[in-house]
Amino acid sequence: MKSMGVIVEYNPFHNGHLHHLEISKMKTNADAAIAVMSGNFLQRGEPALVSKWSRAKMALRSGVDIVIELPYAFATQKAETFAFGSICLLDAMHCQSYCFGSESGDIGAFTHTIEKLERSEDRMNSLIKENIKEGMSYPSSVSKAIASLGLTGEGHVDLTTPNNILGYHYMKAAREIGTAMKAFTIQRKNADYHDEDFSSATIASATSIRKALFSEGFQQDVIRQYVPESTIEELISYHKEFTIFHQWERYWPLLQYRLISASLDELANIYEIEEGIEHRLKEAAQLASSFQEFMTKVKTKRYTWTRIQRMVLHVLTNTTKEQMISHCHKPSYIRLLGMNEKGRKYLGMVKKELSLPMISKLSSAKQEDIHLDIRASNVYAQGLPEPYKAKLMKMEYSQPPIQL
């Protein structure tokens, strides 16, 4: 069986994801589709709308054959680390290919840009450092460095757009680890990654779908035309079982407590906190009455909203620099979240050849490997009222892989 991989968050699974999945299968001529999916917290430093189990079920019901979890140490990182962990896991699953969505849609342009950047890597890093010293954010520093090196225009990938950036890092990671996986890309349709409003009759960004759910209350008709019916059913099921959807505001009291009660030294030891920003975080926590207000007070030209969200997520989960650095070199396990009949057949073929241990029960996992994920899931459950909080925490230990 030929397998292809996709790297996803599915927050939630929508028609754009379905289009990407179907075209990816067709382009790669794959028999099985394997999704490496972020767990309960995401790359932009946000809690997922619904749990990883619910999102895995959405994926399986829409045509994914196997869902594995991208560990917290990679899922909540900058694009480079997020991509590296994802590619390593797809390679460990013996995927023959992987396919990503991009604004470019031109795999040749990605290859050309990567090759040119490799030859200019030292100069590129030097320019980025200079730009950061001038007070620019990391994304802006990279964009300016790329322009300075003349790596823009025809034949190059625009590395100022979010999906092109991720695609570049997927392909760069694949070259670094020497995988035989072939890369494919599909041009994204209609909605931009961060669009907050519905801009098409059938395709909308996950951001706009979440915004509609939170602002309108859970009115399924508001999003029905933008998501598969199976996603609607899973959202209804989750809301019925746990009463809410997750968003940062539900964690604000916990975050505020952590920021106010922790010492400056303790905060400075948290992953991604640097350059004395702990002072700014602490001061804003004492003044703000909501997460939105807190973020507005903290954000600067140098620190993007996403970077601050990741920072404070690590405060919330109490993830130190030492802990994160020791876990983010390379994935050490494959956490199986779910599979269908085709997925079971594929696993039966490759399981003995997997280069990493596969975890289907937490009791079989080395605690030192997986404790960051367990802690993150327990913190994620704190956004729920009782008795649902205890129920979701228990699922981390008791839930077997979903089988459809």
TrEMBL record:
<protein>
    <recommendedName>
        <fullName>tRNA(Met) cytidine acetate ligase</fullName>
        <ecNumber>6.3.4.-</ecNumber>
    </recommendedName>
</protein>
<dbReference type="Pfam" id="PF05636">
    <property type="entry name" value="HIGH_NTase1"/>
</dbReference>
<dbReference type="GO" id="GO:0005737">
    <property type="term" value="C:cytoplasm"/>
</dbReference>
<keyword id="KW-0436">Ligase</keyword>
<dbReference type="InterPro" id="IPR008513">
    <property type="entry name" value="tRNA(Met)_cyd_acetate_ligase"/>
</dbReference>
<feature type="binding site">
    <location>
        <position position="163"/>
    </location>
    <ligand>
        <name>ATP</name>
    </ligand>
</feature>
<keyword id="KW-0694">RNA-binding</keyword>
<feature type="binding site">
    <location>
        <position position="101"/>
    </location>
    <ligand>
        <name>ATP</name>
    </ligand>
</feature>
<comment type="similarity">
    <text>Belongs to the TmcAL family.</text>
</comment>
<dbReference type="GO" id="GO:0006400">
    <property type="term" value="P:tRNA modification"/>
</dbReference>
<keyword id="KW-0547">Nucleotide-binding</keyword>
<dbReference type="GO" id="GO:0016740">
    <property type="term" value="F:transferase activity"/>
</dbReference>
<keyword id="KW-0067">ATP-binding</keyword>
<keyword id="KW-0820">tRNA-binding</keyword>
<dbReference type="GO" id="GO:0000049">
    <property type="term" value="F:tRNA binding"/>
</dbReference>
<dbReference type="InterPro" id="IPR014729">
    <property type="entry name" value="Rossmann-like_a/b/a_fold"/>
</dbReference>
<dbReference type="GO" id="GO:0005524">
    <property type="term" value="F:ATP binding"/>
</dbReference>
<feature type="binding site">
    <location>
        <begin position="7"/>
        <end position="20"/>
    </location>
    <ligand>
        <name>ATP</name>
    </ligand>
</feature>
<keyword id="KW-0963">Cytoplasm</keyword>
<dbReference type="GO" id="GO:0016879">
    <property type="term" value="F:ligase activity, forming carbon-nitrogen bonds"/>
</dbReference>
<comment type="function">
    <text>Catalyzes the formation of N(4)-acetylcytidine (ac(4)C) at the wobble position of elongator tRNA(Met), using acetate and ATP as substrates. First activates an acetate ion to form acetyladenylate (Ac-AMP) and then transfers the acetyl group to tRNA to form ac(4)C34.</text>
</comment>
<keyword id="KW-0808">Transferase</keyword>
<keyword id="KW-0819">tRNA processing</keyword>
<feature type="binding site">
    <location>
        <position position="188"/>
    </location>
    <ligand>
        <name>ATP</name>
    </ligand>
</feature>
